[in-house]
Amino acid sequence: MARIDAFLKLGLAQGCSDVHLAVGVPPMLRMNGDLMPIKFRELSITELETYLLEILTATQKEKLQQGHDLDFSYVGDEGARFRVNVFRKATGIGAVFRHIPGEVPTLEQLNVPDILKQFCEYHQGMVLVTGSTGTGKSTTLAAMVNHLNETRNLNIISLEDPIEFVHPSKQCQVIQREIGTHVASFADGVRSAMREDPDVILVGELRDAETISMAMTAAETGHLVLGTLHTTGAVKTIDRIIDALPGDLREQTKGFLAMSLKAVVTQVLVKTPDGRGRRAIVEILVNNRAIAKLITTDQTHQIASQLQTGKDLGMQVMDQALLDAIVAKEIDPDDAIRYAAEKKKFHRYVTNTDLVPTIDLSDKPEL
Predict the structure, then answer these.
(1) What is the rounded CA–CA span in Å between residue 333 and residue 326?
(2) CB contact set of 347 (below 8 Å; sequence gap of 6+)
(3) What torsion do the CA atoms of 167, 171, 173, 177 make, to the nearest 10 degrees?
């Protein structure tokens, strides 16, 4: 058994989402969004390097020595699975281990709006799940793939860096390929996938112009493309895609988004009232003629108003979703206010009065 497994077992016993190991501090656990140290000595450079080198392959060791970060999956002594990032910093080596549950969650278990199931029924086009790092994008996409796997007969090709949830083939054939292990890059993976008779292509991250371009091509040519972006709102997601591609492709990109972008789901994780868990709260854009016209006429700043009036189509803005969850006593208002755009309307729900002076009290239009 690798010595690092002792820290991972402790983290799992405590119910943490991540285990952080860094030089100069004791190991830390991410507990419901908060980082907490465990009772252990500060890790030295030699000690931590020894722990990590025990679980690296020869190729991974060589890449680390060359100054590259490492992203890979690790299965602990008792079968628990982790997504790992190993990196070098000013004081030495560091690593983060994120626990990947053994069972793929269902959309019902995530308690997300039912419309996400409808997104799985599309036969072509692009559906994006966005949010900052650590907001559960991969978990939501895994639940969507699981729903497809249980309800349709498809060929699903998943491109991940690294592979997280493992999907056994049920009604679908699920092919999972890892960047750096099975294929060189996301763009190469999408290019290859289109020659492998796919129905659905999952792109773990639309991280560069080439990947975005290839994903757009796949969505336009009769495939359902699921992907993620590190954006914090539906409007920002559309702007990011338009800005990511060269200027001479701007009109073409807007045309694609108007025709083939089906939906954008932006999510945050907010603590539950008892502080013992977190719940995904989502903003939802469902593309329609009005939104398509705003995209093609460079009026994306007006899309937010369409989200507010599109409730019958399943759309919702983040602030309203947060308020609804607060009223239903599903989330902690003191944590929810951190994610709100118009914080003033959350004042009456806040229980920690120390938060109030930090809130922006400028006059802003109510949603």
Answers:
(1) 6
(2) 356, 359
(3) -20
Residue where the block lists tokens 């402790």: 10
Reply yes or no on whether the pLDDT at 363 is more than 50: no
A 10 A CB-CB count for 282 gives 23
Specify burial of residue 89 (Cβ count, 10 A radius: 0-12, 13-18, 19+).
exposed
Cα gap 28→11, rounded to integer Å = 9
In sequence order, the β-bridge partners of residue 279 are 270
Question: Two tokens at 13?
Answer: 């016993």
**Burial class for 151, CB neighbours closer than 10 Å (0-12, 13-18, 19+):** middle
- Cβ atoms of 284 and 315 within 8 Å: the answer is yes
Cis peptide before 246 (omega within 30 of 0): no
Q: CA–CA distance from 142 to each of 129, 145, 156, 162, 203 (Å)?
A: 11, 5, 12, 13, 12
This model's pTM is above 0.85: yes
DSSP state letter for 83: E
What contacts 271, CB < 8 A, 6 or more positions away? 32, 33, 277, 278, 331, 332, 335
Other residues' Cβ atoms within 10 Å of the Cβ of residue 270? 26
**CA separation for the pair 165, 176 (Å, rounded):** 10
Helix axes 186-193, 209-220, angle to 10 degrees: 20
Phi, psi for 270 (deg, rounded to 5): -120, 140
Q: What digits encode the pLDDT tens for the residues 115-164? A: 999 999 999 999 999 999 999 999 999 999 999 999 999 999 999 999 99
3 C-beta neighbours (distance < 10 Å), count: 12
Read off the amino acid at residue 10.
L
CB 258 within 8 A of CB 303: no
At 1 the pLDDT is 82
- 333-337 mean pLDDT: 96
pLDDT digits (tens, 9 = 90+) for 76-105: 888 899 999 999 988 889 999 999 998 999
Q: Which residue has the tokens 């763009």?
A: 187
